[in-house]
# Entry
Amino acid sequence: MSPFDPTAHALSVNRRTFLTQSAYGLGGIAYALLQSKLSASSAAPGIPPAGWNGALREAHLPVRAKRVIFLCMAGGPSQLETFDWKPQLKALDGQPFPPSFTAGQQLAQLQNMVLKARGPIASFSKRGQAGIEISDLFPHIGRVADDLCVVRSMQTEQINHDTAHAFMNTGSIIKGRPSMGSWLLYGLGAETQDLPGFIVLTSQGKTGQQPISARQWSSGVLPSRFQGIQFQARGDAVHYVGNPEGVCQSTQRQVIEEVRRMNGLLAAGTHDPEIATRIAQYELAFKMQTSVPDLTDFKNEPQTMLDLYGVKEPGDGSYASNCLLARRLAERGVRMIQLYHRAWDHHDNLEGGMKSGAQDVDQATAALITDLKQRGMLEDTLILWGGEFGRTPMGQGTGRDHHILGFSVFMAGGGVKAGTVYGATDELGYRAVENPVNVHDLHATMLALMGVDHRRLSTKFQGLDVRLTGIAGEVVKGLMA
Amino acid sequence: MMAFFRSPFLIFSYIVFSGTAVRITAAPEKISFNRDIRPIMSDTCFHCHGFDAKTREAGMRLDLRDEAVKPTKTEALPIVPGKPDDSEIISRIFDDSDPMPPVDAHKPLTAAQKELFRRWVAEGAVYEPHWAYASLVPPPVPTQEPSNVNPIDVFIRARLAEKKIKASPEAEKSRLLRRVALDLTGLPPTPEEMATFLADRSPDAYEKQVERLLASPRHGERMAVWWLDIARFTDTVGFHGDQNQRIFPYRDYVIQAFNANKRFDQFTIEQLAGDLLPNPTIEQRVATGYNRLNMMTREGGAQPKEYLAKYGAERVRSVAAAWFGSTFGCAECHDHKFDPIKTRDFYELQSFFADVKQYGVYGDYDYSRNPDLKGFNNDFPFPPEIEVESPYLVARHTRAQDSITAHVTKMREHAQAAAPAVRMATWLDETRAYLGRVPNGWEPLRATKAELRKGDKVITERPVTVETDGTVCGGQPLANREFYRITFQPDGGRITALRLDVMLEPPAGPVEWKWPPSNVMLIPSVQCAEGEVRKLDVVFADATEKAPRFVNGAELHGVTAGWRLPEPTKRETVTGVWLLAEPLKLAAGESLVVIVSGETLPKFRMSTSRLGARDPLEVASAATLAALTAPQRTPLQENLLADTWMMSTADDAFLFTRYHQLVTKLNDTYRGKAWSLITEATQPIPVRVLPRGNWQDESGPLVSPATPSFLPNRLESTPEKRLTRLDLARWIVSPENPITARAVTNRLWSLYFGNALSAVVDDLGSQGELPSHPELLDWLASELRGSGWDMRHMIRLMVTSATYRQSSSLRPELRDIDPANRLLASQNPRRLEAEFVRDNALAISGLLDLRDIGGPSSKPYQPPGYYVALQFPERDYLASDADAQWRRGVYSHWQRTFLHPMLANFDAPSRDECAAARNVSNTPQQALTLLNDPSFVEAARAFAGRILSAGARDEAARIELAFRFALSRLPLAVERDSLTTFLAAQRDIYRADPPSAQKLLRIGLSPPTEGDLVETAAWTQLARVLLNTQEVITRY
# Structure
């Protein structure tokens, strides 16, 4: 492919194409044009895999996953209370933390403090046939252990929430870098035409909340149509998707029809190709006005389904409800679905916070995996569960501080090696010592599972080829089935 | 179907491919290094054979001719001028078995590119210096026809003539005025302005309009939108909690600068180094807010040093982007691969700003103490700041004061009316009696019960003592959520004010009293005999001394919402006074219950007064007491007495309440003052080259300020003289620096022609684009420099050119020759920027508020709950009231982490860093915004009201009028007919459903649109149609 070039894009906005046809009735076609515009390439276009209509004309690698659901545990959950069992840390509880581990390392709020080991507050059990050790705070996730690929050797570079989120989502802390979902949407397009191809849902727990930013789902230097669309818990699910008061759907339709007529007459006079695109966008907007309410209407979900996820009130903005919505989005062909649950920043009250956070996410996360599996969708849906970093094995009062040298995430579904554990931290859970996986590697691997060589998905910005993985990133074969 | 998709796709390929330069296939031109070879080399060779010594392979360097003709390590000759067959690079690029670039680089050369290389070597392999860094010498204007032709047109037409293309005819007059009005002011012409122009047959009719628009204050607002993207101006800090920062005076400075046509050199110097000028003016110091517009953090756990490194790096990127059009970003970690920008250049540029006083983390946390920010919480501002006068606020302050003066006059007239005068006389007698008993007007209270509580629980183990004079003493600081609950049984009579005297001297003893103290809160209530409690409202409270309090950066007035005690340096007693919202009269059996909270309240006592006052601290003032007791009163005393009476008795509830409403309004004008972030110079922090950009690695060399090594006339610090920001600023606008004039001119051009001359406005380096008209760009850049950096002169030159005035209709016959219209054989249509999309709708509807320039950012309607994921502090978005709801987009609140959805949907950047160019997208979100955002629906109904109330004779005339407002033209017959049919259908709908019409006509804050319900609703729908058309949001 030749990368998306914002300059060429800007130029083409003025002369997107010389359409000779009348602008009437061109809606879908103009949209397809818009989609294919990016794939401009000197090479003969290859045959894109089914469902691909983005900038990439062909898969670089076998396509194992068609969509991603990123369950983003905002705040940074502790690996020591989730997936990384450290009996030796427990034995050392309350003792000085060996300085040999920490000397010269960056700390966050524990800077200049006396460092003491803090044993895990949860017990662990071996789960599934694979016998993966998982915290007993997560019994439901334990039940799907054989579907998980747990990575215990994650590392990141950023120790504060804001920048760590940026790094986890965009592979860079420089502003304006596109997020993972935007990359996927740009490279692969979306299977749905009625809904945004990259959707973000947020929920919050009772403690340990940290702010997040729309930057995390921004398309950055890519055109804004690749940005994540955040569904709102209050008001319209998507901004401005509801008709104004006093305007019903059929009246709205008449307005859009009339706008189309006016725009069509204008096109005839000016030959401005942008008009055809505009007409198409109004059609899409109108479709969204129908499809979004349909999407968020849970009434055809049976009670058993609500119970599986633990949804109390469908559409209440809870993590459980969002997980169910994520499945509905996946069914409708949304490329990237990102859930944020803001609950994991436990500088204090780790015990209470972990319990309540686990209560929020355990059942619904497992339900999502189970549900996708029973629908035959898990095999081509890539799930990632994890935070922007982990927590220190050293205590901070009744909690733990931010930690970047070793933490855990898990993947499931689309092409990942199920029922396995990859990598390990040292005996105190301080540093990834076996098969460390950095954020770029994780991104490269996720793209590989989607059929994309991370080095070949790029955009031109300020004269440079920008990539999700920058100039780094190795595909971790050990995570792939 | 496939074939149908395929063919436009091929067209796109062509655009993208040829978009970088106009290349015409006619006669074979001589190969130009800059035009033909450098872009390919930059993309495919320099990564391994370019500037960065660390990644150079095989000892081969191709960016310098001297190096490229030397033998490599393997004795190969990369380039033998004139002899392609002997040149290693030529044989390798044609070598299919082991090609260059290597296959795994995924950058294969096309056959045409290979051929270009071969011809270039054959023609002698002539190198040229990179165009953007070369000295700026004004090129001669090609001679042509009449001498008064705008040189822009001469250059443009020369290229067109070469290609035998005719320029397009001038756009029709109505379109031309609409175009230039939108370009120069961001607003459409009014129907009157259009009529004047159409009637003006003089040869310079158009030029007169240009002058009118340039002189309009709207011009500065329009240009500010452009510069504020570059300066990354926002209302919030961007990182983590994304708190508000106070800097709108900087935005107003930018608007004024453009309105006054401040020369760009001065503009540059003031922003980068205004504080270093001799005796800097307030304006010049406000301008230095530029250096403070980098994102900032207050996140707990963030390390100051790490964030100072981030701020420093961002500043380099933004300054380089703004003034050099260069991308310094990659040089933070390594020498630039494609341009001669070295890592050292990056840190040397950064070190110019090492004196900018700033904190890595804007908090005083346990893990990193910061005495400068002692007591700061998430609501505090981000110093250093300066307090300045804001003309906007001054105007409002004056207005608010005037209305208070008028209101007070009314209150005094009321006091003189017959019946009130009698009541006042009675009150005066009572009050004198009261003062006989309580000469100073304040009746001390002695608690009948004093408890320490936490929630409902009484903490009995820590009894509260009450001394004989009423002093309450709890003995030790209160823990979280603890408070005093004190019960009084006053002797009866009225209570209008409560007073709390706090003795700051901490009692002796082992207990540690922490300062700064927490907020004192006072909540008065009345408990009836049965025990039921009702809260008393407080209208305003203030204190003799107080530490400032903020809510998300905004200073709070008085102490109503909490009293932050000052630090007890003098061990004095401080006093707070609370004015009740209505005077209280306790009934039999009722008691006064006051809750007092605050961590550090060593001792306090309370009193009440039955006297009121306009200001809490004036209750029972000496002047008041004198007026009350004087046997003969002066007119001043008469007035004071009348005021005191009203404030003590609320004799007229409306007058009393209204007074306090007006005071609230007055307070919100902050005496006409506002704070603004500024640059304060301090001892420069050491700046060193950070290996791989790692702030923890201190092994790199220390650097001093120096201008970029690859640009002419380099300035370097010496051990004797460290260069300053002022030196940098002056060097940037010196005649020897070629790149700034080019970068600025190039960007400016895109405002009026859709594309810049070198289309990659943020990278004039070798990965960017050779300008479509290099001589024109250099001529214009020279003109900017030569005119003394006169921006208005440049704008005038551009918009009066014939090139600008051409029709923007597409030229189908040029589709193959110039698909991206780089030769400018016609104008380019341009979709309006986000701010102007909304401004335009408001202007058309008549809602747009153009009363004032500048002022605090306004908040257009925004969907609820949008900030729910923001914390520290948590916040809700309160849309501006009618006083500021319909202001221009340049004044919209700019929240970096959650930009207003309307702005974001129309491609406004979050301004986290310098944004030199905006995307222009076309999305369903834009359609949804125009269709359903209440701002646009309200504009539609106001527009409908405007059309219907204009007294047009019939429907056709009304449609005509609507077109004049919205599109500055008359409707075509087919448009009119279509809309007539539409209107009839809408009428039927709303006739059948008047409640819906009513709902539609109430959207937004402005009063419901008047007139016949059904008719207005139908016209609102028509207005929505027009406001949604492409023509309204595009300047053609």
The radius of gyration of chain A is 23 Å. Chain A touches chain B through 114 residues (CB under 8 Å). DSSP finds 13 helices and 17 strands in chain A.
